[in-house]
Design goal:
The structure holds three protein chains of three kinds. By secondary structure, chain A is α+β, with helices and mostly antiparallel strands. Chain A is 25% helix and 15% strand. Chain A has six helices and ten strands; from the N terminus they run ββαβββααββαββαβα. In chain C, 39% of the residues lie in helices and 10% in strands. Classes of the chains: A alpha+beta, B alpha/beta, C alpha+beta.
């Protein structure tokens, strides 16, 4: 019989919070309704610390720490917003916009898009970097879903959902750096995939209009986000 | 293998070596091999056999002798070094063995390039045959291992390494003893020792040299480390672009296994350790510890956030010790001679020696091992022999794509971890590229950014898109189409990548840009405002020659 | 997190769909054809304990034996090691050492490391572009010569360095490169 793990106390933005030792700064902030921007993180999926939007300042550390993967320590003093952090977050989202072709006015997720909402939350009014305008394809070969690579921000939520929740691992990333792309099986049309179970989890976790359901028109793709926390909860019950 | 057996082998070997009045060593490391040194060796062997001199004249292939630009190198006795040797010179070399050396082939050894070196890591390179374990043993090889296993506890071994002040030679300079101690104290079902032989820095070839010239040294270092931290399984992660080093390592591992120095019950103790090779496949980012681990696990080499550090949670989630080739190569002498001996060399904070790969626009290009604290001036002008063709020194680039360009007014600083960091560069793995006035510093910055952009793993946004944007701006500058706003944007991106990137690649990608902006701001200005390249490089070649 | 019940060599489970489409089977599969080189690949995978960890080693053997990785090979290695297809493809395309396209009869690798760059490697690249019309990664129409670049060969003392097939040559001048390439292209089949 091991003793119960010690509960830790820390300050986030001056507010006292308590936390279990297995919780991350983001977990605790969420519990206390403190907003920290994030894109690649989604409750129920493993964390990768890739988008770098959730970086926070921690007293005593000269490095910014990603709150989605950093576990809390006793007496931590976390600052979630500052001029510096706001500046970096803006730049990161602007870089996302320049990387591929994000045109809200013709997008199925217009009005329901996490990237769009993030830009609004961060008060982004314009993008200072030049757009890249890469050539990216649309794959509509699957009978139920479509992937539009122009809108993909490589958050890898779809890869993780397919691997961890469904177990099929149909999706992964090919190439490297700015040439990275989401692929199905051996880089073949989605419709010809032998491993895809058509469960649609990838579509629901995708933050933008990159993955959407066939037949949706502009602004019609509303993602069902609650399935994942629900699934996670149900699975915990099973354990 | 018992201490007595080891001594026996050493004695036998030294005795047989002593029979030879003349020993002719030919460098057969990759550099000289590409200059046909194999043919030189064969010609000498055939001639010796023809003369019937086999009993008193030995011809053998050895590792790197250092002066790579002047290969093939042949050593025919102490103070008798020949350079640029062709197979047709074999007869002349043999003829002259009893008399004065062949003057036209002579390579002076009483020069700073050789005299200023303090060889520890390279002590056997160019002296022993890397394909024979007996020669390594005769050169006091594996004695440190036996001493550690039979006379020291793991803790005592770590203590010696800590006393030595050895710091990671892969670039970061993390105290080695501390790392070993952390792994030793970490809890896990199994611990791993990994040797990082991915040497991805363009311009660096120290690790390749050590692996080709003295592979057993690295094995011994890993064995001692494994004993100290409690590991039973080790890997050498080596880049696929080093086929000769891979071949020599495989051979050395087999020899060590046969001699009972690897495998189960090493030297009759309860210590087990096996080493396997893992090949890289052309990804610079896999030199980063967590990316390396991902690669060993058979995955894409993308890093993951640290903490947790590999020392506590590494390969397969277990405590893993990762050290560079050169770091391991320093371990046997430290255990043989004691940590205090090592600590006497070098500076207050940077102990011991460092192997540098001197290359670029300098007279003597090759490998040198010098004590820490030597000045850049000595490196470039004395050891390096200065700039050829009467040109002027402009800058020296240290630390590869993660480092910076140091201008002429820094020539008198000592080469150690802290001093280089203070100047905006890093020690890195040891690559030192000298540049003269024919190099455009903006173009150099662009070259390094191109490298970082192509090698970026793509996981985090700042590095993936940031390096692309920075490269675009630098190409615009060298293409004479940039504006002052572009420069401001470049500086903002430098700051973003440095502080928000997930791993060292992104965090240090801005370094060449920042250091050239600081020391060569006039060149940037000339490109942007006057549309001129002071070095006469930009505008002469296709901009952004993509590599 | 890809776990699969049923060991290597067992009869099931087999995941199949419509028999008319390609069958994905995770029972022990046979090599794609009779080519003896598959034995080398099998040996590597066996040496790695048939574990997914051995993916990169297996791909190295495939490339060494066949010259490149094609769809068939990727599928075979992935199913043998029980690695998801997309992951195998992701790994094969992440590492620049691997190529998914067959190489030409001769391969010319120009080193673009720092020392070589400083010593004029770009002029060498331009020369190949001029003479054979090749950019890095391309092969001539008659499949005689492929051009590749390398980040650093580790022969910095001999900059600029070029690898002609397996041989490393140092201090290569544009003239020497041109001569060597024309030797290759002059060779009549």
């Amino acid at each position: 019989m091991s003793p119960a793990p010690a509960v830790k106390t820390l300050k986030i933005d001056g507010r006292d919070c308590s936390a279990r030792p297995d919780e991350t700064i983001l977990d605790v902030a969420r519990e206390n309704k403190i907003f920290i921007p994030r894109m690649c993180e989604l409750e129920g999926l493993s964390t990768v610390g890739a988008c770098r939007l959730c970086l926070v300042e921690v007293k005593g550390s000269n490095k910014l720490l990603p709150s989605c993967v950093t576990h809390v320590e006793e007496g931590m003093e976390v600052t979630t917003t500052s001029e510096r952090l706001g500046h970096y977050r803006k730049m990161i989202v602007e870089l996302m916009f320049t990387e591929r072709n994000h045109i809200c006015s013709v997008c199925v997720s217009n009005g329901h898009c996490e990237l769009q909402t993030m830009a609004q939350n961060l008060n982004i009014t314009h993008v200072r970097f030049p757009y890249r305008y890469p050539q990216a394809e649309v794959d509509a070969s699957h009978d139920r879903f479509v992937i539009d690579h122009n809108r993909c921000i490589l958050c890898t939520r779809c890869v993780r959902a397919c691997d961890e929740i469904e177990g099929a691992h149909t999706l992964d990333i090919m190439g490297r750096g700015i040439e990275s792309r989401v692929i199905t099986d051996l880089n073949q049309p989605w419709g010809s995939s032998e491993t895809c179970t058509s469960c649609g989890k990838c579509v629901q976790v995708c933050p933008t209009g990159a993955l959407f359901e066939q037949g949706r028109s502009v602004a019609e793709m509303e993602k069902r986000r609650n399935f994942l926390p629900y699934l996670t909860l149900m699975r915990k019950e099973h354990e | 293998m018992t201490p007595d057996e080891l001594k026996q082998i050493a004695d036998t070997e030294r005795e047989s070596l002593g029979c030879f009045r003349h020993r002719v060593n030919v460098c057969v490391a990759a550099g000289c091999l590409s200059c046909q040194s194999e043919a030189v060796k064969e010609a000498l062997e055939q001639d010796v056999s023809r003369r019937g001199w086999g009993d008193h004249c030995q011809v053998k292939g050895t590792g790197c002798m250092g002066l790579c630009a002047d290969g093939p190198l042949v050593s025919a006795g102490s103070e008798r070094l020949y350079k640029g040797v062709a197979a047709s010179d074999a007869a002349e070399i043999l003829d002259s063995l009893e008399g004065p050396p062949v003057s036209r082939l002579r390579c002076p050894t009483d020069v700073p390039f050789f005299q200023r070196q303090h060889k520890i890591v390279l002590e056997n390179s160019g002296v022993i045959d890397p394909e024979r374990i007996e020669e390594y043993i005769a050169a006091e090889g594996y004695q440190a291992l036996i001493r550690a296993l039979t006379e020291m506890t793991p803790r005592e071994v770590i203590e010696q390494v800590m006393k030595s002040g050895l710091r990671g030679r892969g670039g970061a300079g993390y105290p080695t003893g501390l790392k070993w101690s952390t792994v030793a104290k970490s809890v896990g079902t199994q611990k791993f020792v990994i040797c990082n032989a991915d040497e991805g820095d363009p311009g660096a070839f120290m690790d390749r040299s050590v692996l080709e010239s003295d592979p057993h040294r690295v094995l011994e270092g890993m064995l001692i480390a494994a004993y100290a931290v409690g590991s039973t399984e080790g890997y050498i992660y080596i880049r696929a672009e080093y086929p000769l080093a891979i071949k020599r390592l495989r051979g050395a591992i087999r020899q060590a296994e046969r001699a009972g120095l690897l495998g189960a019950n090493i030297c009759g103790t309860r210590f087990n350790f096996k080493i396997d090779l893992r090949l890289g496949a052309g990804a610079f980012v896999c030199g980063e510890e967590t990316a390396l681990i991902a690669s060993v696990e058979g995955k894409r080499g993308t890093p993951r956030p640290r903490p947790p550090y590999p020392a506590m949670e590494g390969l397969l989630g277990e405590p893993t010790l990762i050290n560079n080739v050169e770091t391991f190569a320093n371990v046997p002498p430290i255990i043989r001679n004691g940590g205090d001996w090592y600590a006497q060399i070098g500076t207050e904070t940077s102990k011991g020696t460092k192997v540098f790969a001197l290359a670029g626009r300098v007279q003597n290009t090759g490998l040198v091992e010098v004590p820490m604290g030597i000045t850049l001036r000595e490196m470039v002008f004395e050891i390096g022999g200065g700039i050829p063709e009467g040109r002027k020194f402009k800058a020296v680039q240290t630390g590869g794509p993660s480092g910076g360009c140091l201008p002429a007014d820094t020539l008198d600083i000592p080469v150690d971890y802290e001093s280089l960091a203070r100047l905006g560069s890093i020690m890195g793995s040891g690559g030192m590229i000298v540049m003269d006035e024919s190099s455009c510093m903006v173009d150099v910055a662009r070259y390094f950014m191109d490298f970082c952009m192509t090698e970026s793993c793509g996981k985090c946004v700042p590095c993936r898109v940031g390096t692309y944007q920075m490269h675009r701006i630098l190409s615009a500058i060298t293409g004479m189409t940039a504006t002052p706003q572009d420069l401001a944007m470049l500086e903002q991106l430098c700051d973003l990548l440095k502080h928000t990137s997930l791993c060292g690649l992104g965090q240090s990608a801005p370094n060449p840009v920042v250091s050239t902006l600081k020391s060569f701001a006039t060149e940037y200005k000339a490109h942007i405002e006057d549309h001129k390249c002071p070095a006469g490089v930009c505008g002469q070649q296709p901009v952004g020659a993509s590599v | 997190m890809f776990s699969f019940a049923g060991g290597v060599g067992s009869k099931g489970p087999r995941r199949t769909r419509d028999p008319k489409t390609t069958v994905v089977t995770f029972a022990k599969s046979a090599p794609p054809n009779e080519d003896k080189r598959w034995r080398l690949v099998d040996a590597t995978m066996r040496r790695q304990g048939q574990q997914s960890r051995g993916l990169i080693e297996a791909l190295h053997t495939v490339q060494e034996a066949f010259g490149y990785l094609d769809q068939q090979a990727l599928r075979y290695v992935a199913t043998s090691l029980r690695v998801p297809l997309s992951r195998a493809y992701g790994v094969a395309t992440f590492y620049h050492f691997f190529t998914l396209k067959p190489a030409g009869e001769h391969t010319c690798v120009i080193c673009m490391g720092t020392a070589c760059y400083i010593k004029g490697a770009t002029q060498l690249l331009e020369g190949v572009k001029r003479d054979l019309g090749l950019s890095p990664g391309e092969t001539t129409m008659d499949r005689k010569v492929s051009l590749l670049t390398a980040r650093c060969l580790g022969s910095c003392g001999l900059a600029p360095a070029v690898v002609y097939d397996q041989e490393v040559a140092g201090k290569v001048s544009p003239q020497a490169l041109r001569e060597h390439l024309s030797q290759w292209t002059r060779h009549d089949a």
